[in-house]
Design a protein that fits this description.
Elements lengths: L1 H36 L4 E2 L7 E2 L6 H26 L6 H30 L9 H69 L3 H27 L9 E5 L15 E4 L4 E7 H6 L5 E6 L2 E13 L4 E3 L2 E10 L11 E6 L4 E8 L4 E3 L2 E7 L5 H7 L11 E11 L3 E6 L6 E6 L7 E5 L1 E5 L3 E6 L2
Antiparallel strand pairs: 1-2, 3-4, 5-9, 6-7, 6-10, 7-9, 8-9, 10-19, 11-15, 11-18, 12-13, 13-14, 14-15, 16-17
Helix pairs in contact: 1-2, 1-3, 1-4, 2-3, 3-4
Length: 452
């Protein structure tokens, strides 16, 4: 029995060491990909604003690939490095490391898919030849195969651990069964010897043997039932609260015996169907807390419900955001507000929503139908505005992203154009005008809820 246990323990320890090696290898592969293999595909890889080194006709795919490269280089790589350095020999901790590593590799895999789409739409020019394009395609295909292999390796390691645990359990059970059987046989022989030596009546001896066997069966049944009374949590953590059940009470699967809090914190928020359609796994988020005014934490979207919840005709989806850093001042059940970054635009032309109008699904702004002097422009920006002699005309525009107060203009206006932001109706019939300007802008989508 001891030899069997020792062998199973050694085999399992070796398997978990192999699992850690697979996680470390995944980090090495991703680090080499992001910091060396893609250094010709992206410029400024160590900055907050990496860019593709080629032009592409698919601007949306290029924007997604650039943003996901930033996330991969600054967040995913950091997570994989920490996971590869985990020294905890606890089996549950290693199992969780395998799961988290696979999640991070899935984000890298999605990034490479977006990058491949941008490369396939690359524009051939004097600075970017067909040979360059073929080289980039080959590079991304090789990278995607590498990441797929690493994901398969993690899956294989997880399955190997499951199979080994089952094999070890069966081996130990078989050894225990043999011991029990041998003990029963020895006991029976000893009883037979006593009976022979005492010259007992054979019927009495048989009756006693049956009685002993029945009691042994009863003992075995009791041991099995005793094992059913042990409650185990599926993960490591700290017992935060204990339920109302006391020793001796009967409980069901719906009863709460204790609440266990894990070290990894996450926020759970609700999004309406419009905002949920924009949210994606891997997007960055900023978290603020009603009870902690000066605390702001960052995180990543880790899970989005596939099926929404309908309440009073309104559909909402639960979204889980994993904290990048753990702060002990954040407690379970605190109210949290989350801002999820769904898209980024830089160097765009903006106008206030008050200036933008629509008619028949077309957008337009009103502009002066005359040339204004510098003094007029200054007056137009004042509280009283300026009176226009020739009235206004409509200028059709195309719009892009929008927030609650401003909207991106993609065509129809240029920097420095004068537009009407407000019309003042009075005795002088004056109109106030303002000038658009180019500035950097970050459009965000917000959601709020309670962290669980």
């Amino acid at each position: 029995m001891t030899d069997t246990q020792n062998k199973t323990e050694v085999d399992l320890a070796n398997a978990y060491e192999d699992a850690q090696n697979v996680v470390s290898d995944s980090y090495s592969k991703v680090d080499d990909l992001l910091n060396r293999q893609l250094d010709k595909v992206f410029s400024g890889i160590n900055t907050a604003n990496p860019k593709l080194t080629f032009l592409t006709s698919n601007s949306a795919m290029a924007s997604d690939a650039t943003w996901q490269f930033y996330v991969a280089h600054n967040d995913v790589l950091f997570q994989l490095k920490n996971l590869s350095l985990t020294s905890d020999s606890n089996q549950v901790a290693v199992d969780q490391t395998l799961i988290e590593s696979k999640k991070q590799l899935m984000i890298i895999q999605d990034f490479l898919t977006k990058l491949s789409g941008a490369i396939n739409a690359a524009i051939i020019s004097s600075d970017f030849s067909q040979s360059d394009l073929d080289s980039f395609k080959s590079l991304t295909n090789l990278a995607r195969n590498t990441i797929t292999t690493q994901i398969n390796n993690l899956n294989s390691q997880q399955q190997a651990l499951v199979n080994l645990k089952l094999t070890n359990k069966n081996s130990v059970t078989a050894a225990q069964t043999k011991i029990t059987s041998a003990q029963d046989t020895l006991k029976q022989a000893e009883d037979d010897l006593v009976s022979i030596q005492a010259g007992s009546d054979p019927l009495d001896v048989k009756a006693q043997e049956i009685s002993v066997q029945q009691r042994q069966n009863t003992l075995s049944d009791a041991r099995e039932k005793l094992a059913d009374y042990t409650v185990r949590a599926p993960f490591d953590g700290v017992v935060a609260t204990v339920g109302t059940a006391v020793k001796g009470d009967s409980v069901s699967s719906a009863d709460i015996i204790a609440t266990v809090v894990t070290k990894q914190r996450l926020a759970e928020i609700s999004l309406n169907e419009v905002d949920a359609a924009k949210a994606k796994i891997g997007q960055k988020a900023t978290l603020t807390f009603d009870a902690l005014e000066n605390l702001s934490l960052t995180g990543l979207v880790a899970e989005i419900d596939s099926i929404g919840t309908v309440s009073q005709g309104v559909v909402t989806y639960q979204v889980k955001i994993v904290f990048d850093t753990q702060d002990d001042s954040v407690k379970p059940g605190m109210s949290v507000s989350a801002t999820i970054i769904t898209d980024v635009r830089s160097d765009v032309l903006l106008v206030s929503n008050a200036s933008l109008k629509s008619q028949n699904n077309l957008y337009y702004v009103e502009v002066p139908n005359e040339t204004l002097s510098g003094a007029d422009i200054v007056t137009a920006g004042s509280a009283t505005g300026i009176e226009l002699k020739d009235g206004l005309k409509q200028q059709t525009v195309e719009v892009g992203l929008a927030s609650d107060t401003i909207t991106e203009i993609t065509s129809g206006l240029k920097e420095g154009d004068l537009i009407v932001s407000k019309t003042i109706t009075g005795a002088t019939k004056t109109t106030a005008a303002t000038a658009t300007s180019t500035q950097k802008s970050l459009f965000q989508m917000g959601g709020g809820g309670t962290r669980n």
